[in-house]
Input
Amino acid sequence: MVSTKPSSSCPLAARLAKQPCLILDGAMATSLKKLGISEVDTWNAPALLHQPHVRKSVKKVHMDFLESGVDILSANTYAADYGITEGGVDENFKRTQWVFDNLDLAKETIDEFVKSQKTLFGNEVQRPLLVMPIASFASGIIGRASTANRQQKDQDDYHRCEGYGFPASDIRSYFEGRLNDDVLRYAGKTGVAMLAFETIGDLLEVEIICTMLEEKAGVLEEAGLSAWIALTCGTADSVDTGDSIASCVEKMAKCPHVTCVGVNCTEPHLITPIVGTMKNVLKECGAEDKLIVVYPNSGETYISRELMAGETDHWVMTSACQDWNLVDAAMGWVDSGVNIVGGCCRIDAASIAGLVEGIRNHEIIARPEAKKLGRPSTKEKKGKKKTGPPTRSSKARR
Output
């Protein structure tokens, strides 16, 4: 029988042996938009690093998250399968190169951050881990937003069905491109700690991902990679297409290459019961050693259509998120057994900085020795002087 437990060599598990939880970053697209990048270009950014202002902005977002104190940085690869294309060039090659370029930029930013931190605090600085996001197949369905808490045109409800209404062969073909051997080997070479499948909202899609990870076992082992799969959920019991969360987690629990299960781009008030379901299924499957990652969006509803008169933003506040506080909620999730917490759409570096401070203070109260384990807090850093048009479309996570 194949073990379903995470490898002891999993970098995230190894880091968690030294500290109670890890902090993930937040939303790339939200942050790019605040820097003046257009709505379209925030999603095409992985293909636009040749434009100096885009490259500079992506790097700044990475650095802002690192300076907020995160333990894990996400490369801007979520949307690297689609973008502005030009005829006459092999698109598979271009998309692979987009992934390479964005992994290089993320690693470059981490290298520069670590160098600056060593200058300030000495050689005991802990290097942030790097993960490589991979978008759901559904992120490329024209007119459909990836987040489950969306308001769409009536016809888009047709995608809330098995395989989003597409044959399994189409979904498999998409992931064959995202998981080609060159990409996996380059990810390993770049120091990627984990593949991060995000906004996954369908049981068939989960099954295909797990099957392909099994088929890629040799390359994954060579590159030192495993994966997490984060679901986007419309209710406390179901993923976006209506399949049960429990059935999706059961598939993940039985896949040895999935070392972490989770939920992202989901309304915050749904997280606690979802985590409860995940923990129960993992226990039933004898896979309690698998990690749990949680990074919800702000809880606002995304309007996936052209804005009408009087509307100024695609994101709309709802009663469910008005009294929500990321720090308070995250402390509860960590206490319930969540290993990794972060943010998705609308969660920027300032929010993550508050999360880092809150979680670390919470850890120190619960376990005083935790103060010795992480990098310097945001407050400690501030006290020191530093030196020196798309072919596919998406509206979620990065």
